[in-house]
UniProtKB/TrEMBL annotation:
Superkingdom of the source species: Bacteria
Pfam family for this entry, one: Peptidase_M20
InterPro entries reported in the protein's UniProt record: Amidohydrolase (IPR017439), Aminobenzoyl-glu_utiliz_pB (IPR017145), Bact_exopeptidase_dim_dom (IPR036264), Peptidase_M20 (IPR002933), Peptidase_M20/M20A_hydrolases (IPR052030), Peptidase_M20_dimer (IPR011650)
Keyword Iron-sulfur part of the UniProt annotation: no
Stated name of the protein: Amidohydrolase
Stretches assigned to the Peptidase M20 dimerisation domain: 208-299
SUPFAM superfamilies for this protein: Bacterial exopeptidase dimerisation domain (SSF55031), Zn-dependent exopeptidases (SSF53187)
Keywords from the named record: Hydrolase
Amino acid sequence: MIITIKKLISVSIFSLFLINIISAQDKTQDVLNSLDLKSESYGEIAQTIWDLAEMGYKEEKSSALLQKTLKDEGFKIEKGVAGIPTAFIAEYGSGSPVIGILGEFDALPGLSQERVAEKKTAHKEAGHACGHHLFGTASTAAAIAIKNWMKETNTKGTIRFYGTPAEEGGSGKVYMVREGLFNDADVVLHWHPGSQNSANAGAALANKSAKFRFHGVSAHAAAAPHKGRSALDAVEAMNYMVNMMREHIPETTRIHYVITDGGKAPNVVPDFAEVYYYVRHEKRDVVMGIFDRMVKAAEGAALGTGTTMDYEMIGGTHELLPNLTLQKLMYDNLTKIGGIEYTPEEKIFADKIAKTLGYEEVNEAKAKDIQPYKTEAKAFASTDVGDVSFTVPTAGMSTATWVPGTPAHSWQAVATGGTSIGNKGMMVAAKTIALTAIELFENPVLIEKAKKEFLEKRGPDFKYIPLLGTRAPALNYRD
C-alpha cells in the first residue's frame, strides 16, 4: 500500500511537471501568434518611418510614433534622455532582472529611393539604407509581446526599450551609456537588418570621427591672390598628408573623409573650408593613436598654408564585446523561428534587385536558411552598440530584410526595406528577440552565466572612457 501511494505521488509530480512544460510552451506559442496577428500593424508603423526618413537627431516624428505605440501598450515613457530630444526609454514592470532591447530609427542622407526595383530617387533628403525603420519597429514589437507574456504569466522583472537615435555617425548610444542609462540593466538585446539570417558572435570596428575646420583670408583669386590664404588649400594639404600616412598604419585601419565645404566660387580664395573624417580599427587604442596623428596633420596643414584650424569631435564608438552565452541562446531561438519565404510577387521583385547586383536571380535559400553558428567574426563596420556591450552583456542578430547579396547603405537596401520583404524579415527579428528575452526571464542562471563571461572578457582593470570625450550630443552634425 505504501509503495502504491509513493508511486501515485511520483506520477502526480511528474504529471504536474509535464503540465507546466506544456503550459509554458503554449504561452510561448501565444507570444508568436500574437506577433503574427499584429504583423500588418507593425508593418504599417515601419513603412511610416520609412516614408519619414528622418536623419540622426532629427527623428522627431519617428521617435514620437514608437513612443506612442509603446505608451498605448502600458509602457512608462521617459523622453529626451541623455540630453537628446529624440532619445527615450520605455519601461514595463519593476525590479530584476532588467532586460533591455535597443531600437534605432535614423535614416541616411542622400539615399532617397522609391519602392521599385530600379534606381529611382524619391526626391527626399534621406533614405533608410540601413533599415533602421525596421530595426526600431521590430524591437518595439518584441518589447510589447514580452510585456504581454509577463502580464499573462505574472513574471517579475523589467522589460526596457531604449529608443536610440543617430546611430549613423552620431553615436547616440554613447551619450546614453555615458549618462549611466544602462548601468542597472542585466542584459541588452538588439538586431540589425541584413541580407541573410545570422546570430553569430558579432564584431565591430572602433571608430572616431571629427570635422576639421580651416579659416583663411578671402581675396580675389586673379587680381589679388597674394593677399589670400586658402582654407581649401589647407584641407587639401591635410588630405594629402593623411593619405600618405596610410602606408604607415596597421593595414586593417580604415580612414575615409568627405569635403563638406570647399568654398563657394572659383574666383574667390576660400576663407573657410571643412573636411569630415572617420578613422576605424578593431581596437579603440589604435583608433585613438591614429586620430592624434590626423590632428597633427591638420595642424601642419594650417601652419603650411597660413591658416588656422579647429576641429569638433562628432562621434566615437568602442569595438564590440561579444557574449557567447547570450549569442548561442539567440541563435537557437533564431533557428526555431527560421527565415522567410517569398511570395511569387516578392520573387519577381527580388529577381529584379538581384540583377542590379550582378546575379542572374535571387538566392532564396539565403533568405530562408539560418547561417551556421560561429563564435568569431571579422569586423567591417562600426556601431555605437559597442559602447553598450562594454557596459552590460549584449547579444545581437540580423535577418534577411534585403535581397541576399545587397550591401547596406545602397539604394537596393532602401527599396527592399520599403516592401513586404523587409516587413517579413522584421517579424523574424521580433519573434527571436521575444523568445530570447522570455527564456532569460525564465532561467536567471543564464543571466548570471552571461555576466560572469562579460566580466572575464572585459577584464578587471577596465574603465569606460568614451572616445568622443565630454562633448555634448552633436545634435546638429547632419547640418
